[in-house]
Amino acid sequence: MDQDMRTKVGCWERIKRSSWAYPTAVLSLYGFFANFRPAEPFLTPYLIGPYKNISEEQVTNYLFPIWTYSYLAVLFPVFLLTDFLLYKPVIVAQGLFLVTNYVLLCFAPGLAAMTFLQVNYAVVTATEVAYFSYIYSVVPAEEYQRVTGYLRGAMLVGYTLGASLGQVLVSLVGMSYFYINVINLSTLCVAFLLSLCLPMPQRGLFFQGQASSPQQDNTVTDSEVGGGWCGRRNFLQAGELLWRSFRDSYSSRHLIYWAQWWALATAGYFQVFNYIQLMWNHIEPSGTSSVYNGGVEAVTTLVGKSEFL
């Protein structure tokens, strides 16, 4: 037994010393648990049911639009802060906001608390940029394709299994939505603790040096960029690099077409995602074992997003 334990410890130490395996493993586990949300397919029935007692009209016309517009408002500042703070603090913040989200869902009554929850969730969705960009600052370029597949796969597997578990708990166990949210809260606490184990990157894309810009001299030192994060020259160079990246990227007509398609597809998905549960509630009122929200969303994730794996 002692020999097996020493072998396992030795393997873990080798993973931690690896240039890409350890951060990829921790971030993949974080992505799995952060998206393992058995309660999410049943959010609308939970809000309009006896637990929160919010009307369908308030959910449709007031709460969900708050998330949409708040997400739009915080997306660009979060994008800049993600690089400025070197990714990990933003991922930790996302984990904390996810925990806060489900603490509010479980224990905070009233429309005002649910309003704050929507703003809180907007920050969660906006900080997903840190999840996808962190890994490129800590792994070699030749591993980008592999680690991207691992991270995307961890997210989709987590959401699929979470939705499936939620469906099993509703249909076979008859568990109330409140206790499913409590289970969800526990998995998000695990995700938050995992985010603390991520190694801190040493460089960012736009701040902390010019390593990612091939047009610039890589011999620039920290003192030359203004003496750290708050140097004025550092901010000017970050703005210049942002503008150059924007100009070079959108000089391609094919990329513009792709960006427009992606924006429309994402907007359409969010529109359906927000309001489909209300339609399901009209078809089959919540509170019965014949509600299949979790099963439908699990299958949707498998067949609709499997091209990312």
What does the secondary structure layout of this molecule look like, with pairings?
Blueprint: H1 2-17, H2 21-35, H3 43-48, H4 56-84, H5 88-107, H6 111-126, H7 128-134, H8 144-173, H9 177-195, H10 232-249, H11 253-283, H12 293-304
Helix pairs in contact: 2-8, 2-9, 4-6, 5-6, 5-7, 5-9, 8-12
Query: Which structural class should the secondary elements be placed in?
Result: mainly alpha
Number of domains: 1
**Rg over CA atoms:** 22 Å
SSE run: HHHHHHHHHHHH
Q: Architecture, CATH level 2?
A: Up-down Bundle
| Major sheet description | none
Overall pLDDT: 80
Proportion in helices? over 70%
Q: Any idea what the shape is?
A: globular
Question: Terminal Cα separation, in Å?
Answer: 37 Å
Percentage of β-strand residues: under 5%
Task: Characterise this structure.
By secondary structure, this protein is mainly alpha-helical. The chain has a single domain, classed as Growth Hormone, Chain: A, CATH 1.20.1250. Helices cover 71% and strands 0% of the residues. It is built from 12 helices and no strands. Helix 2 runs antiparallel to helix 9 (177-195), helix 4 runs parallel beside helix 6 and helix 8 packs antiparallel against helix 12 (293-304). The longest helix is centred in the C-terminal third of the chain and has 31 residues, at 253-283. The chain is globular, with a radius of gyration of 22 Å. Residues 209-230 have low confidence and may be disordered. InterPro entries: Folate_carrier, MFS_trans_sf. The chain crosses the membrane at residues 66-86, 93-113, 119-139, 151-170, 176-198.
